[in-house]
């Protein structure tokens, strides 16, 4: 029947690669994708978080070695 | 009345796979234009060769900021609508945008029917 | 189910939970459930005490939906296991199997 790959299947190819996640609240986080599920809960290693303010300067950058991101904040996922 | 063929949402989206689409999000006046690669049952989307378009309003003037971002996955809950991107000049797209935004969703349906004819 | 199992492997480790209201709480993860609600022991606020109402609190329960991030030590995570589990589509969502 349908052997089409769904969007979440295609994310699978980016495991162990760097991805950029856009989050609610004008945040972005770059990191190595270690795991994810269908809710877009994710675990990223070697992560950098960018928080933007209204004037769109890169206000804050925070680094973490390992972070779990809850899926309901996720807007989009893009490979780097 | 001639025979009316309804197009339901899922078949509509499936028919857009492989085509240029514009996805508008619920937040931040953000749109993404790209080629629709795949969808799933929740209507998560995957786009390729995507441009991120952000509408900013400064003193009553609307400006667009476009940026090329490659391949992306859009989580389903963020999507306001998905429409086919016609290859028209930029200015017409902006006019269509504002007219769609001010009128009700019934206009979207009207556009859909026109496309199938 | 995938991240439920993941958090179970983190029990008794120290984690820092960042909530959607910008509170940051460091503590020892004592338990987790399928909604990813968390119970932390021996907590301290890492936000520099902008939120002093937790000063006398030693243990608390966090509703999963309020969590933004959970930071943990990279040593407590088996990356290959996690990647493998994600690859094998171990997300528990039967509806995603339906033919589009």
TrEMBL record, chain A:
<dbReference type="GO" id="GO:0140445">
    <property type="term" value="C:chromosome, telomeric repeat region"/>
</dbReference>
<dbReference type="InterPro" id="IPR001163">
    <property type="entry name" value="Sm_dom_euk/arc"/>
</dbReference>
<dbReference type="InterPro" id="IPR047575">
    <property type="entry name" value="Sm"/>
</dbReference>
<dbReference type="GO" id="GO:0005681">
    <property type="term" value="C:spliceosomal complex"/>
</dbReference>
<dbReference type="GO" id="GO:0005682">
    <property type="term" value="C:U5 snRNP"/>
</dbReference>
<dbReference type="GO" id="GO:0030620">
    <property type="term" value="F:U2 snRNA binding"/>
</dbReference>
<keyword id="KW-0687">Ribonucleoprotein</keyword>
<keyword id="KW-0747">Spliceosome</keyword>
<keyword id="KW-0694">RNA-binding</keyword>
<dbReference type="InterPro" id="IPR040002">
    <property type="entry name" value="Sm-like_LSM3"/>
</dbReference>
<comment type="subunit">
    <text>LSm subunits form a heteromer with a doughnut shape.</text>
</comment>
<protein>
    <recommendedName>
        <fullName>LSM complex subunit LSM3</fullName>
    </recommendedName>
</protein>
<dbReference type="GO" id="GO:0000398">
    <property type="term" value="P:mRNA splicing, via spliceosome"/>
</dbReference>
<dbReference type="InterPro" id="IPR010920">
    <property type="entry name" value="LSM_dom_sf"/>
</dbReference>
<dbReference type="GO" id="GO:0046540">
    <property type="term" value="C:U4/U6 x U5 tri-snRNP complex"/>
</dbReference>
Automatic annotation (TrEMBL), chain B:
<keyword id="KW-0687">Ribonucleoprotein</keyword>
<dbReference type="GO" id="GO:0005686">
    <property type="term" value="C:U2 snRNP"/>
</dbReference>
<feature type="region of interest" description="Disordered">
    <location>
        <begin position="86"/>
        <end position="117"/>
    </location>
</feature>
<dbReference type="InterPro" id="IPR034100">
    <property type="entry name" value="Sm_F"/>
</dbReference>
<dbReference type="InterPro" id="IPR001163">
    <property type="entry name" value="Sm_dom_euk/arc"/>
</dbReference>
<dbReference type="GO" id="GO:1990935">
    <property type="term" value="F:splicing factor binding"/>
</dbReference>
<dbReference type="GO" id="GO:0046540">
    <property type="term" value="C:U4/U6 x U5 tri-snRNP complex"/>
</dbReference>
<feature type="domain" description="Sm">
    <location>
        <begin position="8"/>
        <end position="88"/>
    </location>
</feature>
<protein>
    <recommendedName>
        <fullName>Sm protein F</fullName>
    </recommendedName>
</protein>
<dbReference type="GO" id="GO:0036261">
    <property type="term" value="P:7-methylguanosine cap hypermethylation"/>
</dbReference>
<dbReference type="InterPro" id="IPR010920">
    <property type="entry name" value="LSM_dom_sf"/>
</dbReference>
<feature type="compositionally biased region" description="Polar residues">
    <location>
        <begin position="97"/>
        <end position="109"/>
    </location>
</feature>
<dbReference type="GO" id="GO:0000398">
    <property type="term" value="P:mRNA splicing, via spliceosome"/>
</dbReference>
<dbReference type="GO" id="GO:0000974">
    <property type="term" value="C:Prp19 complex"/>
</dbReference>
<keyword id="KW-0539">Nucleus</keyword>
From TrEMBL, chain C:
<dbReference type="GO" id="GO:0005688">
    <property type="term" value="C:U6 snRNP"/>
</dbReference>
<dbReference type="GO" id="GO:0005732">
    <property type="term" value="C:sno(s)RNA-containing ribonucleoprotein complex"/>
</dbReference>
<dbReference type="Pfam" id="PF01423">
    <property type="entry name" value="LSM"/>
</dbReference>
<keyword id="KW-0747">Spliceosome</keyword>
<keyword id="KW-0687">Ribonucleoprotein</keyword>
<dbReference type="GO" id="GO:0006364">
    <property type="term" value="P:rRNA processing"/>
</dbReference>
<feature type="domain" description="Sm">
    <location>
        <begin position="2"/>
        <end position="76"/>
    </location>
</feature>
<dbReference type="GO" id="GO:0030620">
    <property type="term" value="F:U2 snRNA binding"/>
</dbReference>
<dbReference type="GO" id="GO:0000932">
    <property type="term" value="C:P-body"/>
</dbReference>
<keyword id="KW-0694">RNA-binding</keyword>
<comment type="similarity">
    <text>Belongs to the snRNP Sm proteins family.</text>
</comment>
<dbReference type="InterPro" id="IPR010920">
    <property type="entry name" value="LSM_dom_sf"/>
</dbReference>
<dbReference type="InterPro" id="IPR016654">
    <property type="entry name" value="U6_snRNA_Lsm2"/>
</dbReference>
<dbReference type="GO" id="GO:0005730">
    <property type="term" value="C:nucleolus"/>
</dbReference>
<protein>
    <recommendedName>
        <fullName>LSM complex subunit LSm2</fullName>
    </recommendedName>
</protein>
């Amino acid at each position: 029947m349908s052997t089409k790959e769904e969007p979440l299947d295609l994310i699978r190819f980016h495991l162990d690669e760097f991805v950029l996640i856009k989050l609610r609240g004008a945040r972005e986080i770059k990191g190595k994708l270690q795991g994810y599920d269908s809710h877009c809960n994710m675990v990223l290693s070697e992560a950098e978080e960018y928080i933007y303010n209204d004037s769109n300067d890169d206000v804050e950058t925070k680094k973490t070695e390992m972070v779990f991101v809850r899926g309901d904040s996720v807007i989009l996922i893009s490979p780097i | 009345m001639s025979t009316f063929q309804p197009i339901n949402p899922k078949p509509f989206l499936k028919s857009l796979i492989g085509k240029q689409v514009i996805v508008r999000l619920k937040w931040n006046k953000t749109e993404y234009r790209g080629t629709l690669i795949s969808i799933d049952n929740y209507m998560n989307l995957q786009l390729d060769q995507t441009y991120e378009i952000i509408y900013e309003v400064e003193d009553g003037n609307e400006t667009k900021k476009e940026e090329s971002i490659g391949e992306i996955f859009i989580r389903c809950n963020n999507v306001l609508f998905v429409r086919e991107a016609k290859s028209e000049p930029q200015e017409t797209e902006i006019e269509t945008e504002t007219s769609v935004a001010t009128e009700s969703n019934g206009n979207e349906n009207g556009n859909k029917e026109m496309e199938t004819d | 189910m995938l991240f439920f199992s993941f958090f179970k492997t983190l029990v008794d480790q120290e984690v820092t939970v960042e909530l959607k209201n910008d509170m940051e709480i460091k503590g020892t993860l004592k338990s987790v459930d399928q909604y990813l609600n968390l119970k932390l022991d021996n907590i301290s606020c890492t936000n520099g005490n902008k939120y002093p109402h937790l000063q006398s609190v030693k243990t608390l329960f966090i509703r999963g939906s309020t969590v933004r991030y959970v930071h943990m030590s990279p040593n407590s995570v088996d990356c290959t296991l996690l990647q493998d589990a994600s690859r094998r589509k171990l997300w528990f969502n039967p509806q995603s199997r339906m033919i589009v």
